[in-house]
Design a protein that fits this description.
This protein is of the alpha/beta class. It is about 45% helix and about 15% strand.
């Protein structure tokens, strides 16, 4: 098989958690002189100016038997489409970022004996990546000790960290904002791409329970679901606190730079961004996440002293008010947690992942020459 000199294919789609690391890797590999191509499904968005190809794909996680029967043919068609694309592109390597959108391309890559790497964003190997683990050449992980990696595939694991958006990673170079007993306290609330209803409901009630002096110092930037915006706005208005409410933030780097404390779900992107920029966080894992992966993501920050895990059943107005009161009134606790969070981050994750790709390509080239 004659391979292209410098083409690399990325397989990604779906949520930002899959797309952000693919985008960061694409930027690093482009800097190194490679030509990147993206294969995704109908839902997947383009990554900058990357040449994009769309295939059929079918999901498997959480589906009933009838849905599985319907998705099977989609997966087969998508795999054949990917096979044809790879024969045309002749990539040096194919990198998948999890989710069912990546499965057909990664299957085709393994069937065609192309160099293959999957990247796992969460602290638990996802179902799509578990399906592919025994077939690919390398498994790159965002967290040390990623769970549910098949024993037969453990030798393939390389810890790279989670690549985050460059504009967010740049905040790492800024100092943690000044914090004393009288100045402004900035709280950043993130609930994923669509916000989280429970955050919009509980946080205003918890803030209302804080002392007047503490409330007067707060500035809260909170992401809400569109349908929760009016209710949250009215709740905050009743307690007279400074707040910025949006369904989507376009100025995330600035908000990270200004924040003293995050309050958020524990998706892989959010946790990795907190650790990269060095911000402490109260983490409320989504309890229905597949394989409870958000709880294990949260443990990664909690266990190094950079955050505090609050299970959703404990996330009540009284419980949150008590936690906020104990943290916001003792600046040294937040400063120390910020240091722990920052020290556990991997700001060079995109470089490390690109190194893993280049090492695999280099090893394969050496073997070909030896043969």
């Amino acid at each position: 098989m004659v391979l292209s000199e410098n083409v690399i294919v990325l397989a990604a789609g779906g949520t930002g958690g899959h797309v952000f690391p693919a985008e960061a890797l694409a930027a690093e590999l482009t800097r190194r002189g490679y030509k990147l191509r993206l294969i995704t499904d109908s839902r997947g968005c383009a990554l900058g100016n990357l040449e994009t190809h769309r295939i059929r794909a079918g999901g498997v996680a959480g589906k009933n038997f009838t849905s599985l029967l319907r998705s099977g043919p989609e997966l087969a068609i998508g795999t054949m489409q990917s096979w044809s694309l790879l024969k045309k592109l002749k990539p040096r390597a194919v990198i998948g970022f999890g989710g069912y959108a990546s499965v057909p391309t990664m299957l085709a890559a393994t069937f065609g004996s192309y160099n293959s790497i999957i990247h796992e964003q969460n602290a638990v190997l996802g179902r799509a990546n578990r399906f592919l683990a025994s077939r690919v050449n390398r498994i790159a992980t965002s967290f040390k000790g990623t769970r549910l990696v098949p024993k037969s595939a453990l030798s393939k694991v390389v810890y790279t960290g989670m690549p985050v958006r460059p504009e967010v990673a740049a905040v790492r170079n800024l100092p943690y904002p000044e914090l004393d007993n009288n100045g402004e306290l900035c709280l950043l609330v993130l609930g994923g791409s669509q916000g989280a209803h429970i955050l919009s409901k509980v946080i205003p009630e918890a803030i209302a329970r804080l002392g007047t002096d503490l409330k007067s110092r707060l500035f809260i930037s909170q992401q809400c679901r569109p349908e929760d915006l009016d209710s949250a706005r009215n709740s905050f208005k009743r307690i007279a606190v400074n707040v910025k409410l949006e369904s989507f933030f376009n100025d995330i780097p600035e908000l990270f730079a200004r924040s003293h404390l995050l309050l958020c779900r524990s998706g892989a992107s959010t946790v990795s961004e907190a650790m990269t920029v060095g911000r402490p966080a109260i983490l409320v894992p989504y309890p229905h996440a597949v394989d409870d992966h958000q709880t294990f993501n949260a443990h990664a920050l909690d266990e190094v002293g950079g955050g505090w895990l609050m299970p959703q059943e404990s996330f009540t107005p009284d419980g949150l008010a008590e936690r906020l009161g104990s943290l916001l009134t003792v600046p040294r606790i937040l400063k120390r947690a910020a240091e722990c969070s920052r020290s556990s981050g991997q700001p060079d994750a995109a470089v490390r992942l690109a190194d893993a790709v280049c090492d695999l390509i280099g090893n394969d080239e050496n073997e070909r020459r030896a043969a």
